[in-house]
Amino acid sequence: MASQLESTTAPVYTLAEGQPQANPGASYSLNKSGGRGGLILLQDTQLIETLAHFARERIPERVVHAQAAGARGFFEVTHDISDLTSAAFLSKVGTKTPALARISTVGGERGSSDTVRDVRGWAIKLFTTEGNQDWVFNHIPVFFVRDPIKFPSLNRSHKRHPQTNLPDSTMFWDFHNNNQEGIHALMHLFSDRGTPSSLRGTNAFSGHTYKFTKEDGSFVYVKIILKTDQGIKTFSSEKATKMSGVNPNHNLQDLLEAISKGDFPSWTVYVQAMTAEQAEKYRWNIFDMTKVWPHADFPLRQFGKLTLDKIPQNYFAEIEQAAFSPSNMVPGIEPSADPMLQARMFSYPDAARYRLGANYQQLPTNAALSPVYSPFQRDGFANFKGNYGPDPNYVGSTLRTLRYKGGQTSHDEWVGKIADYSSEIVDDDFAQATALWEVFGKHPGQQKAFVSNVAENLKPALPEVQKETIKMFTRVSVDLARLLEEAVKA
Ligand code: NDP
Predict the structure, then answer these.
(1) pLDDT tens string 219-237
(2) Which residue, by CA, sits nearest to atom 1 of ligand 1?
């Protein structure tokens, strides 16, 4: 290869520590006359560095949400909600906050098809003036379990069988037959919205209840909802399956192509708000993420818009290394007592520490754009930001004093006994699933598609498991169960 040093614009090729190197395509070897090389030398740092780094290119993939698409953009406040929260980034109409979004399937491994029937994870990092606010949402409004101890079991049942390493309908439905609090989420998963034909055409829901707080100590419980401005876009089950073979990256490609040609997708952002007094009297436990708050009871209030207008320059650096957590909350937003939320606030950063190391917050894609001074988190693998130099690494020093905000305003008082607890399934757990079945009924073809989608998935399961699943659906609707039984037998 000819030297390219004459070029004024091309970068000068170097080794990883900056030493200019002759030819990135050559190795030190014993050369015979006539130009044939053999026997590589151990002194060839370029070759060793290249091979050794290649073997270390992969990092542990996420146990869930491994396959994703990502993009950058911004969140803009469109309506005043300063009566609900004192969060700085929400305090003024027109304020724009840079955002990073990562939209994923849940069960499939990295590289798996992105049109399969699955929940889409919707992770958004908002780089606010008071640190990062993460919204780690899903494209359906409810979840399959409400007791966090069941979370690993749920996910295993949706992935591969321990013996065959195949997805397994018997395992999937056996889990749900015996954990029927998931019925409402199953209704969402098996509608055609479970197979989006474009990520631009999906909604995103906080699922959990959070709190919006104000500096005066007041608060409301909230759920946050992003509704697509593109309209819902779905595949039929048949088309989704076909697309998995034709183009397993269909949804990733669709998002990137739209943004690249300037067709920027956007989502209108809403909040549902509830006072503590309303929460105490409400029909449903608001810390149960298998339930929505019906719109008639708690209407959607618009407050913002998310727009995605930039594709990442590098997938690994910006999307694979991105780490999101519901525990990333700015002043003005706080967690509720939802046990699933409390567990996720541990699990997400724990997964990031495992995948990316203890200093994952220093990676450029995760780093806050506002000032960070956190000198009691020191050292650790891959600490590349100066490590706070000589500053005290212990609390309380008078040698370098700190300013800090007052403690978090505390709103809840809890009294109770510590005991083993696992939620019971009651008839009311089926009421919202029934309501969704009725919503399907208002849209031609949706009930039929739902029955067919479940039947297709249930057919390979063992007969005794099929029977239990059909029985479970009778608690949603006797009609639905009958149609399902007929479809499974057909
Ligand atoms: P409404 O009767 O006021 O509105 C129906 C809701 O269902 C709309 O949000 C609509 O979303 C959504 N929807 C329509 N078709 C489908 C589908 N195939 N899959 C999933 N969602 C669909 O709702 P209610 O609040 O009275 O709740 C009734 C049922 O609607 C609930 O039991 C719940 O399952 C479902 N739902 C409720 C939501 C909530 O936060 N309250 C959110 C989403 C669904 P869109 O406008 O996008 O078409």
Answers:
(1) 999 999 999 999 999 999 9
(2) 295
Tell me, rounded to whole angstroms, the distance of Cα 305 from its chain centroid: 19
Answer whether 301's CB lies under 8 Å from 81's CB.
yes
Q: List ligand 1's pocket residues with C-beta within 6 A.
A: 141, 188, 191, 193, 203, 232, 292-296, 432, 435-436, 439-440, 443, 446
Structure token pair of residue 205 = 């829901």
CA-proximal residue: ligand 1, atom 30 (nearest):
436
244 CB contacts (<8 Å, ≥6 apart)?
A: 113, 115, 116
Place of tokens 């091979």: 51
Distances (CA, A) of 304 to 85, 96, 103, 308, 466: 14, 10, 19, 13, 44
What pLDDT is attached to residue 1? 44
- Pick the closest to residue 127 from 356, 334, 320, 366 (CA basis): 366
Instruction: Say if residues 407 and 213 touch (Cβ distance below 8 Å).
Output: no
Catalytic residue among 31, 53, 79, 138: 138
Q: What is the pLDDT of residues 59-107, one digit of tens each?
A: 999 999 999 999 999 999 999 999 999 999 999 999 999 999 999 999 9
Q: State whether residue 353 is helix, strand or coil.
A: helix
Q: Which helix (H) or strand (E) holds 137?
A: strand 131-138
Start-end of CATH 2.40.180.10 domains in the chain: 68-144+196-355
C-beta separation of 137 from 226 below 8 A: yes
Superfamily of domain 68-144+196-355: Catalase core domain (2.40.180.10)
Q: Tens digit of pLDDT for each residue in 12-39? A: 999 999 999 989 999 999 888 777 888 9
Q: 91-99: long-range contacts (C-beta < 8 A, 24 or more apart)?
A: 97/126, 97/127, 97/128, 98/72, 98/73, 98/74, 98/126, 98/127, 98/369, 99/72, 99/73, 99/74, 99/75, 99/124, 99/125, 99/126, 99/127, 99/306, 99/308
Q: Which of 273, 426, 326 is nearest to 122 (CA)?
A: 326
